Amino acid sequence: MTAQAHVIVVGGGVIGISAAYELARAGAAVTLLERDRVGAGASSGNAGTIAVGHPPLNRPGRVAQAVRQMTDSSSPLYVKPRVDPGLWRWLLGFARYCTDAHVQHCMDVMAPLGRHALSAFDRVLEEERIECGYTPGGYLEVCSTEAGLEGVRHEAEIIEGHGYRPELIDGDEVRRREPALGPDRIGAVHYPESATLIPSLFLERLAAAAERHGAQLRSRMEVVAVTHGSGRVTGVALSSGDTIAGDAVVLATGAYSRTLAQPLGLRVPVQPGKGYHRDVDIGPNGAPPLRIACVLAEHSVFCTPMDTAVRFAGTMEFSGENEVMRPERLRQLTTAARAAFPDMGTARPRSQWCGLRPMSMDGLPIVGPVPDVEGLFVATGHGMLGLTLGPITGEIVANQILSGSDARADGLLPERFV
C-alpha cells in the first residue's frame, strides 16, 4: 500500500498505539478506535518490565506443574473450574507445544527480536523525548529455595546460549544489590539487558506522539465487525451502527481478538490470562525503597519501583473474559512481598487492578496479514510481553502494511494456525 493509505487500528493498548504511531510517522492516514479508553487495560497495569530473550511459557514439565496448581485459587497459576470447550482446546494445544524442540524454535525467533525490541525502545524514547521513568540496568530474579534457583539457573543457560548476558549471583551479593531483601534469599539471576518504566506514562506520551504525527485516536468506539468484499477489507462497523471505510485494518485487540477474527474464518488461538497488581506507596509503613526491580521466582511476582510507589504484579488466571478481582489473588501478591522484604509495612495499597493478557497457544505473538482477506492484519498474542514488544511490533506492522513484509515476523505470522 502507499503511504497515503487509510489504516484503521482497532485497539488502544500498547500494541495498537505503537502500530498507529509507526504508521502515522511513515505518513499513513491512521484512525485508532478503542472501545474503552486509550491506554487502559493490561497495557497500563502491567509490571512495567521490558524483559527480553526469555523462553516461552510452553516448556517441558509446565503441564505437570500447572495441574498441581490450577485448582488452587491462591497459587501463581489458577484455572477456574468450568465448562469451557474453547479453554480446554487451548490448554490441550498449549500442552502439545511443551517440548524442547518448540522452546528452541521460540528462542530462535524471539532472541533476535528482543534485541530489535530494545533498539526500538531507544529510538522511540529519544526521538519523541518521552519521559516515563525509563530505568536501564535490568532486574533480579530472586530465589528462596534450591528448586527455584535451579529453575532460574536453567532458564539463564538457555538465554545465555542466544547471546544475552544473565549473571548468576549468590545470596550475599543479592542483598548487596538490593538491601531490602531478607536473609532467606539464597541467590538470583541478574538480567542486565532489561529495563523498567512506568507503563501508563509511556502509553500516554506515545499516544500523544502518534497524534502529533497525524493519527486520530478515538475512545468509546466499539468495533463489532470488519467489513469486507471481493476478498479485501473495506473498513469496520461500529456498535453505533456507523461504518468507517479504510484501506487496511489492524486487529490489535488483545484477549478479545477471537471475536472479530472468527467471522472472517481466521483462527486466533488466544485465551485471556488475567494478571493483577497492587501499588503500595514507599514509606515507613509501606513498601521499601527498592534500588532495583525484582522478580520473586517461586511466586512469579514482579516488584517494580515506580516513582513514589512499588508495583507488585503477577499471577496467571484463566477464568474467561471478565475483570472480576479475586481477593485471594491480590493477597498472594502481598504475602509474597512481605516474605521477601522484612520491612514491608501494612499500609493499604494506593491502587489495585486486574487485566487480561492475550496468551497464544504456542507462546509466540501472532503478527501479520490474514490469509485470504487482503488488507487485514492481526497483532495479538503477546502474552506478558506486550510492553516489551510494543514498539517493535509497531515497526513490523507498519512495514507489513506499507512495504509488504518484515522478515522479523516470519515466525509470528497468523498463517501458522490455518
Structure commentary:
The protein is an alpha/beta fold and 418 residues long. The protein has two domains: 6-44 and 201-268 and 362-417, 3-Layer(bba) Sandwich (FAD/NAD(P)-binding domain); 65-101 and 132-194 and 271-360, D-Amino Acid Oxidase, subunit A, domain 2 (D-Amino Acid Oxidase, Chain A, domain 2, 2-Layer Sandwich), CATH 3.30.9.10. Helices cover 33% and strands 26% of the residues. The chain is built from eleven helices and 21 strands. The strands form four sheets. Strands 4, 6, 7, 8, 15, 16, 17, 18 and 19 form a nine-stranded mixed beta sheet that branches. Strands 10-2-1-14-21-20 form a six-stranded mixed beta sheet. Strands 3-9-5 form a three-stranded antiparallel beta sheet. β17 and β18 form a beta hairpin.
Please summarize what this structure is.
This protein has 418 residues and is of the alpha/beta class. It has helices at 14-25, 42-45, 62-69, 85-96, 100-128, 146-160, 171-177, 199-212, 257-261, 327-340, 386-402, and strands spanning 6-10, 29-33, 49-50, 77-79, 135-136, 139-143, 167-170, 187-191, 195-196, 216-218, 223-229, 232-238, 243-245, 248-251, 270-281, 293-296, 301-306, 309-318, 351-360, 366-369, 376-380.
Uncertain regions spanning at least 5 consecutive residues: none
Shape category: globular
In total, how many beta strands? 21
Radius of gyration based on Cα positions: 21 Å
Give the class from helix and strand content and strand pairing. alpha/beta
How many individual helices? 11
Strand fraction: 25-35%
Largest sheet: 9 strands, mixed
Helix content class:
25-40%
Number of domains: 2
Assign the CATH superfamily of the largest domain.
D-Amino Acid Oxidase, subunit A, domain 2
Mean pLDDT over the full residue set: 93
